[in-house]
Design goal:
Number of domains: 1
Transmembrane segments: 7-27
Largest sheet: none
Distance between the termini: 8 Å
Number of helices: 3
Keywords: Membrane, Transmembrane, Transmembrane helix
Radius of gyration: 13 Å
Strand content: under 5%
Structural class: mainly alpha
Order of helices and strands: HHH
Number of strands: 0
């Protein structure tokens, strides 16, 4: 159970890396939308990890 939790920050960092790439290429993007994308991505990763255990 513990080793599953340690994957969450790693996956979130990977997702945030791609999210920052979206920030670089998107000039007219609201940061609230980007923050929502990051949170929803983290929730999706957590859901996947929860289903895999």
């Amino acid at each position: 159970m513990i080793h599953k939790i340690t994957y969450i920050p790693v996956l979130f960092a990977i997702y945030w890396h791609f999210n920052l790439t979206d920030v670089i290429f998107a000039t007219n993007t609201d940061f609230n939308v980007l923050e929502f994308k990051a949170v929803s991505g983290l929730l999706r990763f957590a859901l996947v990890l929860f289903c895999m255990q």
